[in-house]
Amino acid sequence: IGAIPHGGELVDLILVGDELDQLKKRSTHMPSLLLSKKQLCDIELLLNGGFSPLTTFMDQSTYDGVVENMKLSNGLIFPMPIVLDISQETLDIVQATESKDLALRDEEGNLIAVIRVESFYKADKIREAKLTMGSVDPYHPGVNLIFNTKEYYVSGKLEGAQLPVHYDYNDLRRTPKQVREMFREKGWKNVIAFQTRNPMHRAHRELTVRAAELNPGCNILIQPVVGMTKPGDIDYHTRVKCYKSIIKSYPDGLAALSVLPLAMRMGGPREAVWHAIIRKNFGCNHFIVGRDHAGPGEDKNGNLFYQPYEAQEMALESQSQLGLKILPFQMMVYVPAHDKYYPVDEVPAGLETANISGTKLRHLLRTGGEIPDWFTYTQIVKILRDSCPPRSKQGFTVFFTGFSGSGKSTIANALNEALLEDGSRSITLLDGDVVRTFLSSELGFSKDHRDLNIKRIGFVASEISKAGGIAICAPIAPYSEARKFARDLISNVGGFVEVHINTPIETCEKRDRKGLYAKVRAGQLKGFTGIDDPYENPENPELRIDTTDVSVKEAVALILNHLRKEGYIQ
Ligand code: PPS
């Protein structure tokens, strides 16, 4: 049923019956490895045949062939290293056992598989990143994944106990065997696969329907990734709601939806070839590769990691080795005069086009701006708006930083009252002293302890912001890295406004409200920020306020103005 799997046979590594019982029994005496999110995704597709013909994680010679030539030892094309990385410590523990077996478990302790560690090797990660991702810039998500693997890659016989357990979308999670079964039940012989990690809009629907029109007799499998995608992407729960909605807009019986637990590497050209192989294993014999397939976007200097059609070119070049038809597509654009979508290279001469980029869409969602009907469907807009409310409905954090006595707490308290008077969101005040009484009572003032203190504050504030509340934090927070940690964590789930209270240390000492500076000068207190302990000035805070000649009222007004300007309050 469907396309012939890569290498001829669909791999299935899950044991059954007595063999499974024995594996489970044996596993209780083995050392265990807790699989990471990426490892869980990889093992799911290894065990269910999504990565056929692979039957285990790659040994050194397979890995070398794949990294250098995109070839397995039998000559078959395979562009992506699939490896199991473990630490020196875990390797030593396994090496000390007689059987060399390692039980692979999920974070709840469920046994997923057992690997017999028959070989291990240390990878040259720079070479791996260069050859597979075409970059060694850790800003590239795939390069980052490579650099964050443990030092040893291991290989050996892999026996599956069960697929990783999921509690969501079980109606859409199908193995290659189950997808093939679905095709058989529907009577589908030729299937076009469509890969995505973004919400789908009219352009995607038009593109896939057009692919089917150009290839008569083909049906469409929409197979979005719900494993790991590019950091910052729209979460898959929101996306699956969009897919479930848009699938209803296809002509009856033309398309079906199934989700894929893949850990994407954002590896552009090689990733496109890899995606095609996976879809072949799922029974599809056509694969759409559009503009910037699996692209990681730009590096921090604004340069593209890959050219927009580089992935498409490599997929087309590999077509004969892949044994499935690559359907290359240019970007689809809207032509208002015809109220119709066209591939950008087929737009009738002289006609204007329209398009809304992902960045523009995110901006429209954030600001509550209008999203036109020609771009997407009303239902999709509603799903996206519910999941990305405008800033006036999102939670946010105001994060003060500055010396002791700079005025942080006073302004934080006043801001708290002003926001309570005006708004309806719940507010939590995480003042330095309060935090050190309730959250960090065991911590001192070493660098490690100060960093941990700020991480805790960042974590609590991110949970508050995520739930739609306001967190006002007022620690000294002397180190940039810990402040960045808090910023990154919170910005992912809501707004983040850093306010540097840059009152000079001399003024703070003159005020000396708590008498701490006097104690420092008397030699009774050591390691005091700004006197004999560092304070790294924030480079780009949203606001800087020196309370030497700005009153508390004025400071609060400055902050409220900023919050208003950014749309957090009205
Ligand atoms: S940090 O570095 O962000 O973890 O510090 P923080 O938790 O904000 O500090 C809270 C209060 O501790 C008092 N204190 C000191 N501050 C700086 N250095 C040393 N060694 C120290 N020892 C005690 C100080 O009063 C801080 O409160 P604020 O509100 O800033 O005056």
How does this structure look, described?
The protein is 38% helix and 15% strand. The chain has 21 helices and 19 strands. It has helices at residues 17-27, 37-47, 60-69, 88-95, 125-133, 141-147, 176-186, 202-214, 236-246, 268-281, 310-317, 319-322, 358-367, 378-387, 408-422, 432-438, 447-466, 480-491, 505-511, 516-521, 552-565; strands at residues 32-34, 84-86, 101-105, 111-116, 119-122, 152-155, 158-160, 190-196, 218-224, 255-257, 286-289, 325-328, 332-335, 340-343, 396-401, 427-431, 470-474, 495-501, 543-545. The protein has a five-stranded parallel sheet, sandwiched between helices. Helix 5 (125-133) packs antiparallel against helix 6 and helix 15 packs across helix 21. It is globular and about 80 Å long. The mean pLDDT is 96. Bound molecules: 3'-phosphate-adenosine-5'-phosphate sulfate. 3'-phosphate-adenosine-5'-phosphate sulfate is lined by residues 404-405, 409, 432-433, 436, 445, 450, 453-454, 475-478, 514, 516, 527-529, 533.
